[in-house]
Amino acid sequence: MIKHFFKAAYLRGKWEHQVLLTIDPEGRIDNIQTDSAPGEAIQHSGYAVPGIPNVHSHAFQRAMAGLGEVAGPSDDSFWSWRKVMYKFLGQITPEDLQAIADQLYMEMLKAGFTSVGEFHYLHHQPDGQPFGDRIEMSRRLAASAAKTGIQMTLLPVLYRFSGFGSKEPTEGQRRFIQTTDDFLTMVSLLKSADFGSADVAVGMAPHSLRATDLEQLHALNVALTQDMPLHIHIAEQMKEVEDCLAWSGKRPVEWLMANVDVDQRWCLIHATHVTKDEVIAIAQSGASVGLCPITEANLGDGIFPINAFMEAGGQWGLGTDSNVNISLAEECRTLEYGQRLKHLKRTLIAKRGSSNGKELFDQALKGGSRALRPLEKAGLTEGAFANFVVLDGEHVALAGRDTSSMFDSWFFGCGNGLVKDVYVRGTKVVSDGHHVYEEGITKRFKTVMKRLAGNL
Ligand SMILES: [Zn+2]
Known about the structure:
The protein is α/β, with parallel strands linked by helices. The protein is 36% helix and 21% strand.
């Protein structure tokens, strides 16, 4: 048993003082005592908060960060960005993917994310042929999880069609296309694979309604066990809504709810363009929504009606999606600022009299945990994983502040700089703002980036 002592820690939605945390050899919290004494424990000068789950990532896209910002000859949109992305992914080898994911997951940990939902569709070789080991690319992602220490929920993607009505895929999509049978074989290979020291849970991800059909959605729902989450991109773009309406007479979420049994294991990624009725239907189904505010702003997706969703009892988590910039604080800030710019008001996510930062943190923890590991406990509580972040008590952003404004100071007045130490399953992976393997990881990433840049 290892013990940690904090002058304050955020437990079950409340700040407690003089906190003694005992961690078992499996990396779970065995016991928590408040108003305690340090005894032999490791003593921290900062404040402990639970690590936040990052529900949605495409690791390879980290290598494109900042590359989609040159104005084209006509209007730029998600779809023109996607062309750049397809060109880019054609180049990536398994070694490249691992080097990129090492850098990315390290950055996530340094931002306060302690687990990641990897929505993984880069399955095949550049010519579309499967690798000799069908789960080669998944193994690379798991190796990055092992190296950096982040907890992973691997969400292998079923991608079969290029548009509504079972349109055949395009050339640019050949690295991810597979049949339902091949996909389910891949899922069982992943569930039985030995990923060494990596902590990897496995879920499923039909890419979107445009990339799968009803029969496939039913097949995946049947194969889904109680501990597995199922994620799907939905209603991110207006074009997708219009195409779905033209094809079925229904909007994407409306069609999904009418045709498929959606429950609390489901996580709808983006769900940006939804009506009031769709918002209520999602909340009532128990599904969570995976919001990716930085990416949604970067790609010009739109703004999710979060207040109506929360009023209906809906749960949501945060994802970094295209990984253009890794910051938990900025995801929270962008989510709130999008609402402000739309509604011309302030403090829109918090309930009256409460703190915006605290509300954002609580929701991202609760909804995010459910979206990645539906049966696990969330936060710093007995039985949960000992995933925690130590915020720097000496940081200038906290001068003269107490715990009541901690999350607001972090998200609105600072950023990643407040994250001092990070522990996953009780193991220290970030120390004083640096990852324990930072130098080697960044060196390798730079080498890969130079080679990829030369091929673009
Ligand atoms: Zn995505």
